[in-house]
From TrEMBL:
It comes from Rhynchospora pubera. This is Leucine-rich repeat protein kinase family protein. GO terms for molecular function: kinase activity. It holds the Pfam family Malectin_like. Gene3D superfamilies: Galactose-binding lectin, Ribonuclease Inhibitor. InterPro entries: LRR_dom_sf (IPR032675), Malectin-like_Carb-bd_dom (IPR024788). The keyword Metal-binding does not apply. Keywords: Kinase, Signal, Transferase. Residues 28-359 form the Malectin-like domain.
Amino acid sequence: MPNYAPWILLHLFLFPFVAAQMPGFISLDCGGVNSYTDDTGLQWSPDDKFLFGQRANISAPASTNRQYATVRYFPADSRKYCYTLNVRTRTRYLVRATFLYGNFDNSNVYPKFDLSLGPTPWSTIVVSDAYTPEIVELVLLASQPTLSVCVSNASTGMPFISTLELRQFNGSVYYTQSETRFLLSLAARINFGAESNDSIRYPDDPFDRIWQSDSIKRANYLVDVAPGTEKISTTSPIYVGFDEMPPQKVMKTAVVGQNGTLTYRLDLEGFPANAWAFSYLAEIEDLPPDETRKFKLFIPGRPEVSKPTIDVQENAGGKNRMYEPGFWNISLPFVFSFGLRRTNDSSRGPILNALEIYKYLEINLGSLDAITMASFASNYPQAVWAQEGGDPCLPASWTWVQCSADPQPRVVSIMLSGKGITGNIPSELTKLPSLVELCQVLLIFYRDVIFITSEETSMDM
Ligand SMILES: *[C@@H]1O[C@H](CO)[C@@H](O)[C@H](O)[C@H]1NC(C)=O
Ligand SMILES: *[C@@H]1O[C@H](CO)[C@@H](O)[C@H](O)[C@H]1NC(C)=O
Ligand SMILES: *[C@@H]1O[C@H](CO)[C@@H](O)[C@H](O)[C@H]1NC(C)=O
Ligand SMILES: *[C@@H]1O[C@H](CO)[C@@H](O)[C@H](O)[C@H]1NC(C)=O
Ligand SMILES: *[C@@H]1O[C@H](CO)[C@@H](O)[C@H](O)[C@H]1NC(C)=O
Ligand SMILES: *[C@@H]1O[C@H](CO)[C@@H](O)[C@H](O)[C@H]1NC(C)=O
Ligand SMILES: *[C@@H]1O[C@H](CO)[C@@H](O)[C@H](O)[C@H]1NC(C)=O
């Protein structure tokens, strides 16, 4: 496989990625039937070769986004349903899943279910409005050639999904020292001073991050705004080509605290938690030589964050250049308040162009038998039961497997009755040290001799 070509692996079906877009972009329109290019130039593919679940159309208030017109939904049972995507190892990706309920099942019961990345719990999807999409994003370093996104554990309604999107980063964008142990789960990505309610994304952001406008008013989100907060903008280009490379369009607008302070309060979903939190600043006003803009960050109860004085123009090495101060690892509360305050020797108030906050999610290493089981399943590329994907044990085990309750579970039982397996025992199964039971048409291991039987048996290792 050429290493530049992103491929999507939906079980046994390989879809070549349609040409002429950013490398590493996959945009799946779940429940869709056709491929198309949307207004922004993103190329969407249907998930019509996916083996599980059913398609449904959303009726009523026509969404402007075609990808929200359909969903794929799954039974509310005890198993998991996984999409498996091919990725380049040692490369960072943004994984985005969206969920627009739209009363697809005509029951008006808002679903609630879990989402996981392989064995790692990602999010609990709670639909709170039928026609507002729930959007979740992760930033991660791909350590394996595939990654799986799974839904499971419905507590209300049926699990469903509207889109699954994969965006590849380049260089060291979002590098962290702990990236082999933690995923970054998006909590806030805000474009301050936005000129409209619209989010900024591809093609303004070549990585298709979604930068939310600060004009959108929501309960407990960007409230307690200080008096004297004004929007400013520039038409000059901004130098952004390093660190997280925020889009220029986001950096060309900002808020300034004309009365000396900027303050905000916002709820951070899933917090308190440890966070990766960075601000994106650039001086976009013409300051006369005798004027300065110097300020400090304030977080209630956290005097240590106020130590450094920020002078954007000086820190960035000039006007219209980005400066990205922030915290690699800061513990933040659910109700997060912060302020930027002019220092006493500064003539101008603070400036803020953009902000991103991610929660660190600890990677679950999954079953110790995951590789062995994946290898075993790969012997049966035609069989639906062998295509369940994800980890064999977590967050729910494959339907024909039982696992121990250990933090890194072992496979203890395999039920292959009626799966149509004949002939030799797949060699992988001899590598499962905790396997105590194999219910199958064949298999007794006795010393080196294999007896074929049609009874349920126990395996003595
Ligand atoms: C969804 O709508 C399309 C076109 O209107 C129709 O062809 C298709 O059968 C519908 N699918 C379902 C699952 O209702
Ligand atoms: C399933 O969801 C319920 C309710 O949201 C939660 O309490 C429970 O811990 C979840 N189970 C698993 C295995 O994650
Ligand atoms: C990363 O991607 C950006 C946006 O497409 C591009 O401008 C830049 O040259 C790339 N950098 C590297 C190191 O590939
Ligand atoms: C922007 O969104 C707010 C609510 O968040 C709404 O009150 C306002 O009318 C919207 N403005 C435009 C121009 O759509
Ligand atoms: C800003 O400060 C000035 C002078 O202190 C004051 O007159 C004005 O009312 C303040 N504006 C706001 C919006 O608080
Ligand atoms: C962040 O800091 C806390 C406390 O010092 C530590 O337990 C945690 O592992 C750190 N997280 C990361 C991602 O480095
Ligand atoms: C400005 O000066 C006042 C009193 O002199 C002091 O209390 C305050 O902390 C100073 N503010 C900043 C941001 O340095």
